[in-house]
Design goal:
Shape: globular
Radius of gyration: 23 Å
CATH class of the largest domain: Alpha Beta
CATH superfamily of the largest domain: Vaccinia Virus protein VP39
CATH topology of the largest domain: Rossmann fold
């Protein structure tokens, strides 16, 4: 294959990035914004990890499940790679991908139930919008770290949430601040993170920059104050392309967002992980709660607990709970959340899950909600050694879930998996597996 060569591909399936995959000249090939069953023509734009990439694709045979996207940026933006796919087909594909991952790992399990997203648009409670080197403010093209889209709209946040983006764009023009350039490692403006409390009504805007003072700070505060309960200036002094700030300075309100889910009002640190779909997070909590409540007066261990989402949400259903999380700022907020909500039977430890000493712990039930990389091997080994009566595995990556389950099913019986769609228009889905000791 030569760069720029025009190729034709019959799309056979989706890969983990949500790209359509197939073959051209008997070689594995991938393209964004297509659907299995379609035929696409595009140009060869490169190869990565043995997979050829098609760009500027034109669908010559369309799927009956292809729909017109709601957003004008769909088809070029990395925020919604499946907006062109009818939602029923999206959910079907996700379930099939989970089942295929279980099969590939030789795990005798399947999805027993899939819970669809309650809302397909305006559902996210957090968006990280990046500044591009040419004054763009928006998201990146799929699969590209160096291609930025200057968004005119975004249907993932609420209308007022994206209005924050528009007002920050206007404010930038009143300053001499330059966007950060990831190639040259120079500039100032890096990210705008907008977080919304869908149930609390709060909104937090965090402007993440390189080191330095803000110009026209008063103008920024005046522009965003009608829309935001909190405005924060965060500094990321490194050259890393991330929205995490090493220091935070509130310009208005607290460096904090509150959100109410399942009767608990959570304190969310600007840098902390929290489920990005509040309404479906409540559904996810109920799925876990149904299993936990099956054992009265249980002692709960919540590993990779973040800000205490599960341990605080389940506190009334257990005798006691311990949450463990490496992020000390998230643990600090979990403790304050417990205090503010009058929850006295939970405690927290700011340490890595694999470093936890189990000598004083004898949990009846363990909840694990690890990052996409899955459980640390030491955590998996300890769980198999200690063998608590029940384990609830909540996963944002069903492929690593399948690998971990292969070990657990030597000592545990698994109920059919439950898929909860917190991420419509993407290939991602949350998967919950309930394990009971044999």
């Amino acid at each position: 294959m030569k760069y720029g060569e025009r190729l034709t591909m019959k799309v056979e399936g989706f890969d983990e990035r949500g790209r359509g995959i197939g073959k051209t000249d008997a070689k594995a090939t991938a393209a964004y914004f297509v659907i299995p069953g379609e035929t696409v023509e595009g140009i060869f734009v490169g190869r990565k990890q043995g997979v050829a990439r098609l760009g500027d694709g034109v669908v010559t045979e369309a799927s009956p499940d292809r729909v017109k996207p709601e957003c004008p940026h769909a088809g070029s933006c990395g925020g919604c790679s499946w907006q062109h796919v009818a939602y029923a087909r999206q959910l079907k594909e996700k379930v099939a991908m989970i089942d295929e991952a279980f099969k590939a790992a030789e795990v005798p399990l399947a999805v027993g139930r899939a819970v669809p997203a309650g809302e397909l648009f305006h559902h996210r409670n957090r968006m990280d919008y990046v500044f591009g080197p040419h004054s763009e403010l928006g998201l990146k093209e799929p699969g590209r770290w160096d291609k930025h889209l200057d968004l005119a709209t975004c249907l993932l946040l609420s209308g007022d949430g994206f209005e924050v983006v528009k007002r920050v764009k206007a404010w930038v023009k009143t300053t001499s601040h330059r966007p950060w350039d990831n190639r040259r490692h120079e500039g100032f403006l890096k990210y705008l993170v907008v977080r919304e409390g869908k149930f609390s009504g709060e909104r937090l805007a965090t402007l993440v920059t390189a080191e330095g003072a803000l110009e026209n700070e008063r103008g920024l505060i005046e522009a965003l104050s009608p829309l935001c309960t909190s405005i924060v200036h965060g500094v990321n002094p490194t050259i890393t392309d991330i929205s995490v700030a090493a220091s935070l300075r509130p310009l208005k309100g607290e460096a904090l967002l509150r959100e109410r889910i399942g009767g608990v009002t959570y304190r969310i640190h600007p840098n902390a992980f929290f489920q990005t779909n509040s309404r479906m997070a409540e559904t996810l909590l109920e799925e876990v709660k149904a299993f936990v409540k099956a054992g009265a007066h249980a002692k709960l261990l919540d590993l990779y607990c973040g800000g205490g989402f599960f341990s605080l949400g389940l506190a009334e259903d257990v005798e006691s709970a311990l949450g463990v999380e490496l992020d000390a700022s998230a643990i600090a907020q979990a403790k304050l959340t417990a205090e503010e909500n009058g929850i006295a039977n939970v405690r927290y430890a700011a340490e890595a899950a694999e470093k936890l000493s189990w000598e004083a712990e004898a949990p009846d039930i363990v909840i694990v909600d690890p990052p996409r990389s899955g459980l640390h091997p030491a955590v998996r080994r300890t769980l198999m050694e200690r063998r608590p009566e029940r384990i609830v595995y909540v996963s944002c990556n069903f492929r690593t879930l399948a690998t971990d389950l292969k070990d657990f099913l030597r000592a545990y019986e698994a109920e059919p998996a439950v898929a909860v769609d917190l991420f419509p228009h993407t290939p991602h889905i949350e998967t919950v597996v309930h394990l009971t000791r044999l």
